[in-house]
Every structure is written in structure tokens, then in C-alpha cells.
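Support request from a user on the community tier.

User writes: "When I paste my C-alpha cells into the form, the page sometimes reloads and wipes my input. The last time it worked, I copied everything first. Here is what I submitted, just in case something in the input itself triggers the reload:"
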């Protein structure tokens, strides 16, 4: 049992919602299984079912592995423990939904079209059989899962045993909170659930016997109806007593200290219509449908968590499992940060709890511990979804990097949790070095799309789910991570050429920046890593590699990562982005020199001729970010059509198509 909330993250359509539905159907609503729950790859087999069909190949399955230690109460869990080995610390429960082949075949129409429609519309209920098994796979090393390879070793269990052991609750993402569109005429879900909360509290206060809960529920409604006949102050006094603690904690959570529930006697027919959640002064308040959806969503979540906590306490099962889907709905980033900070404190009050949270919010992920993240990955529609543990699985990859692995892994953890967690949800990524590229890349993408995407071709880069990250010279730290999550990545970086300089005093060799034509080395560790540079001590091999780096034939292979660095263009080979940009836009820059910020020595620019752009860049370029900002301004406002360095444009073409 983990003491912290586990985050399930991943791109769209990687199975987060399906996972929640699967848990709910097996643990709470087994009668709700139907044809649409069967995976798409096996549906044709389901439709073609006959006497020869192996029904076990078509089953829907869920395996829960439950860990325990000597401090746990194993009375109920022991029903699922098949091995008395005192060193064992886990047991397995298999849930299985199978087609009742004989019953289905007897009911199927003979006509092929009618048969297909019958299965699609009726496969559920009486045609499905749900069973629960315990099994022990200790020492199992075969590739085939134990529960398939050793069917005779499965021990069937009653569903009542599972319910006694495990209490499951889910708070779905499709939360119906009132909005301003309703104008107060529609349902008020927040007020309704607050009434439900009141009822539970009133039941507990009046009668602890669960068997009499229904009768007590009715009594509490009559009590409220009676109170509604009295003055509002008395009713609000009762509300304050019931909701006081919760609304205070919720108000602190949202920094709205004056949350309250007030009477609304204009409608007395139903309890749900007789109260509403407001904030502000009682005589001058905002009703529910005028409140921000973000606040309503979080309040709804908090009330749901309170109701789940009550149910967990009432059932008193040894294991509690709570799944919250996408808590970020309708909330702005700052509120997501607050939620991520405080949710753990709220749910930690629930005993014996394993909490799961699915999210698309990089803000929530960035506030979470690396150890709590599980990544759902699906490389293609034809492949199954895998769930990866970042802290254990990914750290093992970094360990293979040797002495630098631990430091690189530490950098990755800090970067993803502090700077950007967008990579967890991206389909593709572009890594850039610095501020200049960050300012201008959106412009370059727009130019790329105009030049390369026609009306009938595939979508442009601007409409793809691409995450752009400014990682400086640390792109190599992401190599195992990118392989781990399996997303295509373009790394735009400088060639950073250098040459050896021997000190006359010490005789030591250092490497200083120089034009590409004069170079023998590069200071760019990213290029060395991804393009497999040999040890510089092996001079002949390194010299050959450096030649291939210069002419663009040093390859990173056919993998998912492409390096884009400066190549010779129009007779000149630039060393940096600024060097490359100036070389292919010289005439435009001369014409706009008085409007470009970040320049110095403008007279040098006016007199320049030839192709010594490396020296020119050093002489005229002052603050790079100001220069980039001016380039962008002139493009967007003045309509200047800048040329994009070829290495960048080629890289953008690659990432669009791959």
C-alpha cells in the first residue's frame, strides 16, 4: 500500500479513462460489461464466434497484486493467500469476464448481418460470465502469464470475498457542475451533493445502525421540511453546524474563508432545491451558477472525497481504493498547483488507502514526486498499452550510463518537476538551446507550415501536439528518458566548433571557439553523445568523425531522435544560430539595421562584404534576446519575410512527417 497518491499520466488515448472504467466495472458494476468493452483487435473474433472458438482468448481480465507485511491485518486477505511461505509479501487476484459461448451460440440469428448486430447490441448480461480467482505466481518465469499457462492452479473465489476485502470508489472526470449558461434554471449539482452530504451526516448523528439508514433518511427529510417552515435563521444555524468544519477546510483550501450554505425557502418541495452553496456576504452573494467553474469543480471534488471517506469508514474494509479522474477540469494553472500541493493532506486522513489520480495537467505533475508517476505508453494503435514506473524502470536506464548516470537522472527529475512536465503528454518534442531560438521558433514553424503544407497535405506543425523545451546544452540528459517514453524528438543545437590551442607557458592544450573551417573539435556534448563521437584520444577516428559532423553525414541512426545543427549554406558554414541567420539575411538586416535592437557597431555592418560572418556576428551582435525580439516584431508587424536557416527548416520537415 503506497502512502502517497499515484499519478497515471500519458498522452491522449493511452488508456487512462479505460483503466478507470475497467476498475469500476470489475469492482463495482460487473453487470455493466458489454460488447464495447472488448478490445478492438479481438472484436472480429467475437463476431465470428463458433463452436471451435477458444473463449479464453477473448476474455477481459484484470489482475490486482496486493502487497502486505507483518503489521497488516490479514484476516480477510488470507482468503486469497495460497502460499503460507512466511517470506512472501504479495498475493494476486484475477478478475475475468468471459463470453458464455453455448448460451450465445444458441441465441444467435443465422443471417450474418443480423448476427453482427445482435452481438453488438446484446453481448452483455446473461451472455457474459464474471469470475474471480486467487493465484500464486511465485517463481514463475515463463513469458506467458501464469493465469493463462496454469489455469488448473487458479482457485475460484466469491465476489463477496472481494467486497469484504476491498472498497473501491471513483470520482469521474465528467463532473456536471452548474455554469452561467443555466442562469439558475438548471440543476445545481453542487447544492445537490451538499444535501447528500448533509443527509449522511444527519443519518450518522441520529442512528448508527446501517440497517435503519433508509428510515433515518426519511426522518431527516421530514425534519428539514419542518425546519423550512420556520425562519431562515434557524435553518442556516443548522446548516452551519453540519457544514462548518468542511466549509472551513474547503475555504482554507481555496482561500475563500467565507464559504457558507444558506437557506433558499422559495422552493420547499424538495430538499435539493432548498439550499445552495454561495460565497460572499449572505445579503449580497453569488449563486452557484454565477461562480467560477474552477471553484465549483474543486468544491465538488472535495465534497465527493468527503462522501467517499464516509463510505470507506462505514464499510471498514482492509483496503480502500480511490480513483480521481482529471481533477484539473475547469481550473487555471495556479489552482492546479494548489490542488496538487494539498490533495495529499486531504486523502491521507483516509486509512488503508491507495489513491490513484489520472491527469493531463503538467502543472499537477510538476508538483508531484517523481516516484509517484506511472506513465501509460502506446507506441501505435496496433500495440498494447504499457504502464511504466519512472523511478524504478527509468533509473535503471540511467545506471547503464556509468558514472554520469546518477547526475543526469537527478537533473532530469529536477527539470521535469520544476521546469516542464509537458513531455509526459506530448506526441513529439523539439529541444532548443536558448532564448533566441525560443523567441523565434514559433515564427519559423509558421513559415515552415506556409511553405510546406498545402491544402490537401497532412497537418502542419502548428496543429500537432508538440512540446518545445529550452534545455540549453543538457539535451543528452534526456536521451534515456526520450527512449523510455518513445516520442519523436528534434534537437536543434549549435555545432560549436573549436580548435586546439597549446599554452606557451604551461604546454597544456585547451580548446577555443573558432570558425567551422578552422576547427578540429566541438564543445557540444549533445552532438558528441547523440552522434556517437569516438574518444578524442583516438585521433584518427575522432578526426574522421569530425569531418562527417561538418559535412552532415554523422548520423544518429534511424531512431526517434534527430540532431539539427548548422551545415554549409550558400557557400558559408555557420557556427551558431545567430551566425547562420545573419549570413542568409544580410541584405535584409542591413536594410532594417536601425529598427533592430540588440545590435552594436552598425557602421561595421554597413561596410561589411565577403563571407566572414563569424567575425561579423561577434562585432555587431549585442544582446541576443533583444535582437531575436526585433526579428519577430518586424516579421509580425512590418511583414518582413526572413529566411530560415536550412538546418532548422530541414529539422522541422523531419519532425512534421515522423
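"...and here is what came back when it finally went through:"
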Amino acid at each position: 500500500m503506497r502512502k502517497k497518491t499515484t499519478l497515471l499520466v500519458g498522452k491522449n488515448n493511452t488508456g487512462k479513462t479505460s483503466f478507470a472504467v475497467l476498475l469500476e466495472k470489475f469492482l463495482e458494476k460487473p453487470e455493466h460489461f458489454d460488447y464495447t468493452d472488448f478490445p478492438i483487435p479481438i472484436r472480429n473474433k467475437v463476431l465470428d464466434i463458433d463452436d471451435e472458438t477458444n473463449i479464453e482468448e477473448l476474455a477481459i481480465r484484470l489482475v490486482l497484486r496486493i502487497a502486505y507485511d507483518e503489521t497488516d491485518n490479514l484476516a480477510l486477505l488470507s482468503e486469497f493467500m495460497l502460499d503460507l511461505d512466511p517470506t512472501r509479501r504479495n498475493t494476486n487476484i484475477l478478475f475475468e469476464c468471459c463470453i458464455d459461448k453455448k448460451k450465445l451460440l444458441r441465441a444467435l440469428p443465422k443471417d450474418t448481418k443480423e448476427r453482427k448486430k445482435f452481438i453488438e447490441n446484446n453481448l452483455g448480461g446473461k451472455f457474459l460470465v464474471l469470475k474471480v480467482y486467487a493465484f500464486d505466481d511465485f517463481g514463475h518465469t515463463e513469458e506467458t502469464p501464469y493465469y493463462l499457462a496454469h489455469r488448473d492452479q487458479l482457485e475460484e473465489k466469491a465476489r463477496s470475498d472481494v467486497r469484504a476485502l476491498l472498497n473501491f470508489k471513483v470520482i469521474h472526470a465528467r463532473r456536471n457542475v452548474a455554469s452561467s449558461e443555466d442562469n439558475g434554471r438548471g440543476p445545481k449539482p453542487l447544492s445537490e451533493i451538499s444535501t447528500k452530504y448533509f443527509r449522511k451526516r444527519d443519518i450518522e448523528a441520529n442512528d448508527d445502525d446501517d440497517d435503519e439508514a433508509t428510515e433515518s433518511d426519511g426522518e431527516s427529510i421530514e425534519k428539514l421540511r419542518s425546519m423550512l417552515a420556520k425562519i431562515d435563521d434557524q435553518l442556516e444555524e443548522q446548516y452551519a453546524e453540519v457544514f462548518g468544519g468542511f466549509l472551513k477546510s474547503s475555504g482554507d483550501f481555496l482561500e475563500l474563508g467565507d464559504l457558507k450554505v444558506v437557506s433558499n425557502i422559495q422552493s420547499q418541495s424538495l430538499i435539493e432545491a432548498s439550499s445552495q452553496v454561495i460565497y460572499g456576504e449572505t445579503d449580497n452573494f453569488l449563486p452557484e451558477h454565477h461562480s467560477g467553474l474552477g471553484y465549483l469543480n474543486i468544491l465538488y471534488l472535495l465534497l465527493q472525497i468527503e462522501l467517499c471517506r464516509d463510505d470507506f469508514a462505514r464499510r471498514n474494509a482492509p483496503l480502500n481504493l480511490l480513483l480521481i479522474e482529471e481533477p484539473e477540469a475547469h481550473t487555471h494553472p495556479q489552482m492546479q498547483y494548489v490542488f496538487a500541493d494539498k490533495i495529499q493532506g486531504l486523502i491521507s486522513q483516509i486509512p488503508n488507502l491507495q489513491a490513484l489520480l489520472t491527469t493531463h495537467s503538467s502543472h499537477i505533475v510538476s508538483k508531484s514526486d517523481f516516484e509517484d508517476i506511472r506513465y501509460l505508453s502506446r507506441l501505435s494503435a496496433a500495440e498494447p498499452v504499457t504502464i511504466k514506473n519512472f523511478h524504478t524502470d527509468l533509473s535503471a536506464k540511467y545506471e547503464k550510463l556509468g558514472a554520469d548516470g546518477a547526475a543526469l537522472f537527478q537533473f532530469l527529475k529536477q527539470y521535469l518537476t520544476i521546469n516542464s512536465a509537458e513531455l509526459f503528454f506530448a506526441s513529439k518534442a523539439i529541444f532548443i538551446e536558448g532564448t533566441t531560438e525560443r523567441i523565434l521558433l514559433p515564427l519559423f514553424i509558421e513559415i515552415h507550415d506556409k511553405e510546406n503544407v498545402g491544402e490537401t497535405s497532412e497537418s502542419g506543425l502548428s496543429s500537432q501536439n508538440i512540446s518545445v523545451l529550452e534545455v540549453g546544452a543538457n539535451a543528452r540528459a534526456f536521451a534515456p528518458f526520450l527512449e523510455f517514453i518513445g516520442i519523436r524528438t528534434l534537437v536543434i543545437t549549435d555545432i560549436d566548433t573549436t580548435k586546439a590551442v597549446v599554452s606557451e607557458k604551461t604546454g597544456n592544450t585547451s580548446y577555443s571557439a573558432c570558425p567551422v573551417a578552422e576547427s578540429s573539435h566541438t564543445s557540444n556534448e549533445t552532438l558528441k553523445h547523440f552522434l556517437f563521437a569516438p574518444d578524442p584520444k583516438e585521433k584518427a577516428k575522432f578526426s574522421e568523425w569530425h569531418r562527417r559532423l561538418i559535412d552532415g553525414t554523422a548520423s544518429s541512426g534511424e531512431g526517434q531522435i534527430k540532431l539539427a545543427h548548422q551545415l554549409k549554406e550558400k557557400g558559408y558554414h555557420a557556427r551558431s544560430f545567430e551566425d547562420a541567420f545573419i549570413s542568409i539575411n544580410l541584405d535584409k538586416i542591413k536594410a532594417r539595421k536601425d529598427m533592430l535592437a540588440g545590435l552594436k557597431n552598425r557602421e561595421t555592418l554597413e561596410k561589411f562584404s565577403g563571407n566572414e560572418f563569424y567575425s561579423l556576428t561577434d562585432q555587431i551582435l549585442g544582446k541576443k534576446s533583444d535582437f531575436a525580439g526585433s526579428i519577430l516584431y518586424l516579421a509580425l508587424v512590418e511583414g518582413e519575410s526572413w529566411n530560415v536557416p536550412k538546418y532548422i527548416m530541414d529539422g522541422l520537415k523531419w519532425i512534421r512527417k515522423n
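Agent notes: The reload is a front-end session timeout and is unrelated to the input. The longest helix spans residues 232-254. Residues 185-286 form one domain. Escalated to web team.
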